[in-house]
Amino acid sequence: MESRNNSFAVVTGASSGIGLELAKQFVQHGFDLLIAADDEQINAAASDLRTHGSQVYAMQVDLAKPEGVEALYHRILEQSRPVDAIAINAGVGANGDFVRDTPLEASLNVIDLNVRSSVHLAKRVLSDMVQEGKGRVLFTSSIAATMPGPFDAVYHASKAFLQSFSQAIRNELRDTGVTVTALMPGATETNFFKRAGMEDTKLGAAEKDDPAEVAKDGFEALMKGEDHVVAGSFMNKVEATMAHILPDTVTAQMNRKESEPGSANRK
Length: 267
Description:
Strand 4, helix 4 (104-132) and strand 5 form a beta-alpha-beta unit. Helix content is 49%, strand content 13%. The chain is globular, with a radius of gyration of 18 Å. It has one domain: 3-Layer(aba) Sandwich (Rossmann fold), CATH 3.40.50. The protein contains ten helices and seven strands. It is an alpha/beta fold.
């Protein structure tokens, strides 16, 4: 199938949710795609995306493992074309009391996927972009990056890392032709809450943003080369702003009420 132009993008965590919607934004704007996720739904997603008229390649891979990141990078190199844009979106959470409830393996997996794999993949792809003198990078951060998150302690910390990391390397690369953008959604209607074990929390049970709208905000910010965008509802912008004003002790307590296991059934 012929693509509409020569632009090429990569999206991770693209089998569902924000990642899939970001992939849709890319193909709707004429990009060819390589999409990746750790589940077999990635192949069905690719089939759907091809109906937009672009070349779409799928790879099922576990990016929480270093060899998974290297395998994806080699797949990128096999395309023999520069990456015009990449959305480093794959992420996971692990809800629960860090010390008493959450398995160490689950906490480390959050770090491995959200933090380590993002740095690993960025190192590989951005090095090539700098050599080309152009490229756009989108990290899926979160408004969670702006505040402590009891019962999601490692997840919030991982997003704070990504936020700081993305803004730092954006500054480093300011004269290279490569832009870095942080996408900061709030609670969004995706599989995240089920995978993180948060369905019985107030946040998990609450109404959430449409991932298509979040992805649209993120794509537009990426194309404009903006440093970050608080995506989704107006309340996300309010929450992110208040997080910079209120003490961490206050925002931590606010988040505790939203994310504590069983809180969905409490007043």
